[in-house]
Specification:
The protein is mostly helical and about 120 residues long. Helix content is about 80%, strand content about 0%.
Length: about 120
């Protein structure tokens, strides 16, 4: 049994992308992360604007520290924007879908004795 698990794990690592791309739910979830509308671009433009604006208002005299603080603000705002975009996604998380696809492929492998193609 352990041999089959190892064999499947090796197969999964080599063919993960092709197996996942055959799943409709996975493809639909990946497609929602593409930037299509103006609001998508705005969510990724806001961090840049926040970083530029914060440079003017950070009360630090040293230029290098001001740049570092601005970069940190940009990163934090970017993470918040990505979180907001993920909340608007109607699909399950990609990692959950990937785990389900892997589980189905493994069950198919155990029942048929053949690796999925």
């Amino acid at each position: 049994m352990e041999n089959k698990e190892k064999e499947f794990e090796r197969y999964w690592q080599g063919h993960k992308t092709s197996i996942l791309m055959k799943d409709d739910e996975y493809r639909a979830a990946v497609e929602t992360y593409r930037m299509r509308s103006g609001s998508d671009w705005l969510l990724f433009g806001i961090p840049v604007m926040a970083g530029i604006v914060s440079m003017q208002f950070i009360p630090i005299e040293h230029e290098l520290l001001r740049w570092v603080a601005s970069i940190l603000i940009t990163i934090v705002v970017f993470v918040i924007c990505v979180y907001v975009k993920s909340l608007s996604n109607p699909h399950r998380a990609i990692s959950d879908i990937e785990a389900d696809v892997k589980k189905k492929a493994y069950e198919e492998y155990l029942s048929t004795g053949r690796l999925p193609e």
